[in-house]
Amino acid sequence: MKDQFEQLKDDVIAAATKIADRDALERLRVEFLGRKGKLAELMKGMATLAGEERKLIGAVANEVKSAVEAAFVEAEKKAERGERYERGETERVDVTEPAIGSRPRGHLHPVTQVREDLEDLFTSMGFIVADGPELESDYFNFTALNIPPTHPARDMQDTFYVEGAHGSNGEVVMRTHTSSQQIRAMRAYGTPLRTVTPGRCFRNEATDVRHEHTFHQLDGMVVDKGISFAHMKGVLGIVAKHLYGPETKIRLRPKFYPFVEPGVNGEVTCYLCKGEGCRLCKKSGWLEVFGAGMIHPNVLREGGVDPGVYSGFAFGFGLTRLVMLKYGIDDIRHLEGGDLRFLNQF
Ligand code: PHE
Question: Which residues in the chain show pLDDT less than 50?
Answer without folding.
Answer: none
